[in-house]
TrEMBL record:
Residues 2-297 form the AMP-dependent synthetase/ligase domain. The gene is spnF. Residues 347-420 form the AMP-binding enzyme C-terminal domain. It comes from Streptomyces sp. CNQ431. The keyword Lipid metabolism does not apply. Pfam families: AMP-binding (PF00501), AMP-binding_C (PF13193). This is AMP dependent CoA-ligase.
Length: 428
């Protein structure tokens, strides 16, 4: 967090990365954005010994590297940074699976934060345990609550025991999690004996809350819940459902609504013609407002594909009810959401087919009690190729959360005449 504030004040671009990315994935992103400095813990930097030539500075944040600042002869002249100046490149994946950098300016972060301050009304007595990494919307949530004077407790990595201890030791009032983390915490040994009486609210997002988890959490924790919906291209979380609008567990017949758009932003459901559909009718959710991205970094064609007349196309299908709340019913993309993290099948397919013994591959998401969804890979391979061979290959080339849990060996991947994979046939 300190690095973000410092880099923003310097007028530099902050490019947070998922620490679990494989070495080739990190190198590819660094090369695309032309990064000149890399900051991180020593153990993480030691994993990435061969970085692109553009990197001239390596800063281990867990060592006393800032002592020299006190010996600078003259203060550094800081530039003026306008709201329209880019401050961060937040990475996501496009439908092709190629990681894309979303260019976000200071005005975008400010717009989303101000909307949250109005709608969620955080206060300075809040102590929030942030269980999520800071390379996506979690950072925006933390910045927003910090702006209200709240205390943010960051974790080096999520484990149920670590989260429980953080709440008890800090008398935390709030937590920021994905639904699968809530499940793991409830199932953890010692969860019933840990003092969680200080909790007032759990914020969750990135995936729907399983109804059984919601019911158990309400019964055992006795706190309120706030759902968050957002995407990197819209500056982070732009929709929220507060505790007062969450249903009683016994009244839940379907997915919980996503919630209301934060003030200053607009969202609607549109048909294939791009026109708004009536309330209650399903369409694609589109968003506009000062929080939306400037565009994909150095990729105007990809930017044009997801924008129309100032609106950002989310790729999510849903509807707006009579009270103005957004409901999601499905995804128009084939994204797999594993424990709140987006996994793109085409990226896994590309990694698999890079192996000389894999002739073709198709990946779909399958339900999983612990993670929500996990990737299942269908592969066409040369005779003698084993599951162990494929597991070793993906371990080397993909982050842990992207790796298929299992493989199905098939004779051919079903495709339509245009060559597109018929994933519906694989799911049935």
């Amino acid at each position: 967090m300190e690095s973000y504030f410092a880099l923003a004040r310097l007028g530099a671009l902050f490019v947070p990365l998922n620490h679990s990315l494989a070495v080739p994935e990190v190198a590819g992103i660094i090369e695309r954005v032309g990064a000149v400095a890399v900051l991180g813990e020593s153990a993480l930097l030691d994993r990435h010994t061969s970085l692109p030539a553009s990197v001239r500075i390596r800063v281990p944040l867990d060592k006393p590297v800032f002592e020299a600042l006190g010996t600078v002869d003259e203060p550094v002249e800081l530039p003026e940074v306008a709201d329209t100046d880019p401050v961060a490149i937040l990475h996501t994946s496009a439908t092709t699976g190629q990681a894309k950098g979303v260019t976000v300016d200071g005005g975008s972060f400010r717009a989303i934060a101000l909307g949250w301050l109005v709608l969620a009304r955080p206060t300075d007595d809040i102590v929030m345990v942030n269980c999520c990494p800071l390379y996506h919307g979690s950072m925006v949530v933390s910045l927003t609550y910090m702006a209200a004077g709240a205390t943010i407790v960051l974790m080096p990595g999520f484990t149920p025991q670590r989260a429980l201890a953080a709440v008890e030791e800090n008398r935390a009032t709030h937590m920021w999690m994905v639904p699968q983390m809530v499940r793991f915490m409830l199932q953890a040994k010692g969860s019933r004996s840990t003092d969680l009486g200080s909790l007032r609210e759990i914020l969750y997002g990135a995936a729907p809350m399983p109804l059984d988890v919601y019911a158990e959490a309400v019964e055992r924790l006795g706190c309120g819940f706030r759902q968050v919906y957002g995407m990197t291209e819209v500056g982070g979380p732009f929709v929220t459902l507060g505790p007062d609008e969450h249903p009683e567990p016994g009244d839940v017949a379907a997915r919980i609504p996503c919630g209301r758009v934060v003030p200053g932003m607009s969202a609607r459901a549109v048909g294939q013609d791009g026109q708004e559909v009536p309330r209650g009718e399903i369409g694609e959710i589109v968003v506009r407002g000062p929080g939306v991205m400037q565009g994909y970094w150095n990729d105007p064609e990809a930017t044009e594909e997801v924008t129309a007349d100032g609106w950002v196309l989310t790729g999510d299908l849903g509807f707006v009810d009579e009270s103005g709340r957004i409901h999601l019913v499905d995804r128009s993309k084939d994204v797999i959401i594993r424990a709140g993290q987006n996994v793109y099948p085409s990226e896994i397919e590309r990694a698999l087919t890079a192996h000389p013994d894999v002739r073709d591959a198709a990946v779909v998401g399958v339900p999983d009690e612990d993670y929500g969804e996990v990737p299942l890979a269908y592969v066409v391979v040369e005779e003698g190729t084993t599951t162990a061979t494929l597991l070793a290959h993906v371990r080397e080339n993909l982050a842990p959360y992207k790796r298929p849990r299992s493989f199905e060996f098939i004779e051919r991947v079903p495709r339509n005449p245009a060559g597109k994979i018929l994933k519906k046939a694989l799911r049935t």
